[in-house]
Amino acid sequence: SVLLIETANALGGNHTWSFHETDVSPAALELLKPLISRSWSSTSVEFPRIKKTVEGAFHSIRSEDFNRVLKEKLEDKIMFGAEVVKMNDTTVTMANGKTIEASVVLDARGVEQTPMPGLNGFQKFIGYDVTLEEPHGLEAPIIMDATCPQLDGFRFYYLLPWDQTRVLVEETYYSDTPELNDERVSRSIRSYIERRDWKIKSIDREERGCLAIPLTSEAIKTSVSGEAVPIGVRAGFFHATTGFSLPDAVRFAEFLAKATDPKSTELTTQGARDGLAKYRRSWLSRQRFYRLLNRLLFQASEPSLRYVVFQKFYELSDDLIQRFYAGRTTWTDRLRILSG
């Protein structure tokens, strides 16, 4: 049996997860379909030099749908409002003193602490879900609109149209620091909406985030014997450059499902740790190129010109772009990216 322990009263917090269909396996996509809030057949980007549509399905999951579907699926297998104060490889201890024993203990509590600049750059954002007075006219997401003044590193807007009048508008930065000026970002999002000739009827939700973008493998957390096994972004499992975390979470779930096949022996925390170590070695190897790109972006590029790196990247083929997001960049792709 499985027990999911959640500190809050709902799963998923206040987030939006997005992914390209080619980021996950066909089997994983079938599992994810009930969670998907909206899908589109393409995405687009806008830079000073190019505007481009990238063909290929793109999906987004809103936290309210994530919570609703998983509550229906898991029912009594979720413990809400439970604060965990301590855990090891066999036991979880709550703030109220209650303990739970398990053969496998996984720690998916998110980022443990904000890493220090030097080992990391930062992807940070604030976004508003807004309802507009009139239709916005968007047919697909704009995942990067960098036709704006470049401040605090690479700055762009990210747009997800939920229906004809509702749209998520996020202002995102690839920055050297994790801090955000809430008041300034709020003003600039409103100004951006005005520049698109949209009028806000209501602001329905705000979300924010700051993810450390690793420059080296030192930023990736290791699993220590005797402790619970860290997974997800707590362990550093996300695309090193894009920051997308859902595909890696799905890949680990697929790994764990295979490891707990009924025909196999009972899985333990140490068994999960050993298996994850093999997964981690392969994953670190695949991500090495993206960490190199991060170093070039944060250490070898003038902050105000970082957008040029992404602009050049999006001039490449749709197939290469999809492989990049999926973490399956070939050696030929790498040469094209670096020479571009």
Give a verbal description of the structure.
- With 340 residues, this protein is an alpha+beta fold.
- It folds into two domains: 4-116 and 215-339, FAD/NAD(P)-binding domain, CATH 3.50.50; 120-213, Alpha-Beta Plaits (2-Layer Sandwich), CATH 3.30.70.1990.
- Helices cover 30% and strands 28% of the residues.
- It contains eight helices and 15 strands.
- The chain has helices spanning 26-32, 63-74, 182-195, 246-259, 269-299, 306-313, 318-325, 331-339; strands at residues 4-5, 16-20, 38-46, 51-62, 78-79, 84-87, 91-94, 99-101, 106-107, 120-132, 142-145, 154-161, 166-175, 200-214, 229-230.
- The strands form four sheets. It has an eight-stranded mixed beta sheet with strand order 2-4-3-11-12-13-10-14. Strands 6-7-8 form a three-stranded antiparallel beta sheet, with no helix packed on it. A two-stranded parallel sheet has the order 1-5.
- The model has no long low-confidence stretch (mean pLDDT 90).
Q: Summed up, what is this model?
A:
With 340 residues, the protein is an alpha+beta fold. It has eight helices and 15 strands. The chain folds into two domains: 4-116 and 215-339, FAD/NAD(P)-binding domain (3-Layer(bba) Sandwich); 120-213, 2-Layer Sandwich (Alpha-Beta Plaits), CATH 3.30.70.
